[in-house]
Amino acid sequence: MDTQIPTPSTNIDRPSQEEAEAAVRTLLRWAGEDPTREGLRDTPGRVTRAYGEYFGGYTIDPVSLLTRTFSETEGYDEIVLLRDIRFESCCEHHMAPIIGRAHVAYLPRTRVVGISKLARVVDAYARRLQIQEKMTAQIANTIDEVLQPLGVAVVIEAVHQCMTTRGVHRPGTSLTTSRMLGAFRTNDATRREVMAMIQRPGTGTREG
């Protein structure tokens, strides 16, 4: 079953599958290629199916991912951190890949959420046309609004191919962004603790 590009949340005049594939053929001709030759004949369909994966975040509601929480935590009130969440996104300026990892932490008030949901929230926002600064804020703000914890910290490190493979051509560079809310913003000790946990080598488990 073919995967078509998802419907964005905003109301737009969405082209048909045939129109999308025709647009790919136009780009191939613009690049100097012949879209009818054997190697490119199926490329328009492949590209549109790939776009359905790249931009699948438009069909996901990040808020709904966090609605199921758990209160049986034996009074746990320390930092919850999920490190090294690999993600793939796409620059909204050049539609070039952004490849990186996110570290997501929160300080629970009374309830916790399944850790896979944190990774899914990252994926929901990553699989949209993005800039890293906006994505960082979206992830943190959503967790803060839904879980209402004592604090949220999101740190993202990524390589932008719009910078490494074109333009200034600076391979080896990466961008780091962060968003701190609640106790992570107002309490220096709590902020230092979460940053130390993020930077600690190994599996990410805390030493007693």
Which key terms come to mind for this protein?
208 residues; alpha+beta; five-stranded mixed beta sheet; two-stranded antiparallel ribbon; disordered N terminus; disordered C terminus
Which structural category fits the helices and strands?
Answer: alpha+beta
Q: What overall geometry do the principal axes of the alpha carbons give?
A: elongated
Number of helices: 8
Q: Residue-averaged pLDDT, rounded?
A: 91
Please state the CA-atom Rg, rounded to the nearest Å: 20 Å
**Strand count, sense and closure of the main sheet?**
5 strands, mixed
Report the strand count: 7
Task: List the strand order in the largest sheet.
Answer: 5-2-3-6-7
Termini, distance in Å? Answer: 50 Å
Helix/strand order, N-terminal first: HHHEEEEHEHEHEHH
Brief overview:
By secondary structure, the protein is α+β, with helices and mostly antiparallel strands. The protein has helices at residues 17-30, 43-54, 62-65, 115-126, 132-147, 161-164, 183-186, 188-199, and strands at 69-70, 80-91, 97-107, 112-113, 129-130, 151-160, 175-182. The N and C termini lie far apart (50 Å).
Q: Please, could you describe this protein's structure?
A:
It is built from 8 helices and 7 strands. The protein is elongated, with a radius of gyration of 20 Å. Helix 1 packs across helix 2 and helix 4 runs antiparallel to helix 5. By secondary structure, it is α+β, with helices and mostly antiparallel strands. Strand 2 (80-91) and strand 3 (97-107) form a beta hairpin. The termini are far apart. It has helices spanning 17-30, 43-54, 62-65, 115-126, 132-147, 161-164, 183-186, 188-199, and strands spanning 69-70, 80-91, 97-107, 112-113, 129-130, 151-160, 175-182. A 5-stranded mixed sheet has the order 5-2-3-6-7. A two-stranded antiparallel sheet has the order 1-4. Residues 1-8 and 204-208 have low confidence and may be disordered.
